[in-house]
Amino acid sequence: GAVVSQHPSWVICKSGTSVKIECRSLDFQATTMFWYRQFPKQSLMLMATSNEGSKATYEQGVEKDKFLINHASLTLSTLTVTSAHPEDSSFYICSASGGREKLFFGSGTQLSVL
Amino acid sequence: AQSVTQLDSHVSVSEGTPVLLRCNYSSSYSPSLFWYVQHPNKGLQLLLKYTSAATLVKGINGFEAEFKKSETSFHLTKPSAHMSDAAEYFCVVSRFGNEKLTFGTGTRLTIIP
User: Fold this and answer.
1) Predicted confidence (pLDDT) at residue B63 exceeds the cutoff of 60
2) Is B98–A99 a contact, with Cβ atoms under 8 angstroms apart?
3) For residue range B10-29, what is the model confidence (pLDDT) as tens digits?
4) Cβ of A6 and B101 within 8 Å?
5) Mean pLDDT across the stretch B49-77?
6) Inter-chain contact A97–B98, Cβ cutoff 8 Å?
7) Distance (Å, whole) CA B50 – CA A100
8) Confidence category of residue A100, pLDDT binned at 50, 70, 90
9) Residue A11 at interface with chain B, using a CB cutoff of 8 Å
10) Which of B41, B42, B90 faces A43 most closely, judged by CB atoms?
C-alpha cells in the first residue's frame, strides 16, 4: 500500500539552530501535504497545508517565518524549524494526500530542543 | 465550523471484553468522520472512515463504528479486546475527505491482561 516516509524520526538540537524534517510520498503523487504538531498528551494541531509549487497556507497562530515549508515536488515536502527554542520541542507529523481517497500519515518526528 | 469531542480521555478494559470509545461531532455540513490509532512512537493509522455511505462502518482489526446523525455520534466499538489494541485513538472530522482534519483530544485505551 501507499507509504509516507518521514525523516528523521527523532532529533535533538541546540537552541538557536535550525532543523529540517522531510516528508516523502513513496508510491503516489501527493498534491497536498499537511503538517501537524502534537504536544505531550494533547491532540494533533494542524500547522499548515502545502500544495506542490505554491506557498503554504498557515493556520492562525503559526509563525510562517519560523516554520518554513517547501513543497517543491509531488513527492516531497519539508518543514524547517528555524532558530529552534525549547518551546518548539514537540512531535511533528506530516500527512500526504493523493486525492479524495488517499490520505496517509508519516511516522512522525520527535524534536527535542536543548 | 466543525469540532469533535471524545468523551473519555482514558478507557481500560480486560482482554477479551468489548471496547467502546465514544465520539460526538459538531458540523454545519455533512461531515466525513474517521478513527485513527496511534501506537507509541508511531504515526497514525486509519482504522475506518465514514463518508456518507453506509452508516455502519467496518474497519481493520475488528473495529467498527456507527454514524448516528440524530445523536451526532460516531462511537468506535470492538467485540473483544486484544492486548495489541492498547494505543491512543483519535476521532477526526473533516468536510470533504482529505480536507483539513480536526482531531479530537484522543482516548488512551489500556487493555488489562
Assistant:
1) yes
2) yes
3) 999 999 999 999 999 998 88
4) no
5) 92
6) yes
7) 13
8) low
9) no
10) B90
Cβ-count burial of B57 within 10 angstroms (0-12 exposed, 13-18 middle, 19+ buried)? Answer: buried
DSSP strand E in chain A: where? Answer: 4-7, 10-13, 19-25, 32-38, 44-51, 57-58, 67-73, 76-81, 90-99, 102-105, 109-113
Residues of B in contact with A34 (CB under 8 A): 100-101
Rounded to an integer, what distance in angstroms lies between the CA atom of residue A79 and that of residue A64? 11
Cell output for A88: 518548539
Q: Which positions in chain A touch B41 (Cβ < 8 Å)?
A: 9, 108, 110
H or E segment to which residue B47 belongs: strand B44-50
* B79-97 burial code (b ≥16 CB/10 A, e <16): eebeeebbbbbbbbbbbeb
- Residue A106's contacts (CB-CB under 8 Å, 6 or more residues apart) are A4, A5, A6, A23, A93, A94, A95, A96, B43
Q: Given an 8 Å threshold on Cβ–Cβ distance, is A43 in contact with B41?
A: no
**Does A111 score more than 90 pLDDT?**
yes
Above 80 in pLDDT, residue B81? Answer: yes
Task: List, for residues A21-49, the tens digit of each pLDDT value.
Answer: 999 999 888 889 999 998 887 888 999 99
CA atoms in the 13 A half-sphere facing the CB of B18: 7
Residue A41, pLDDT score = 76
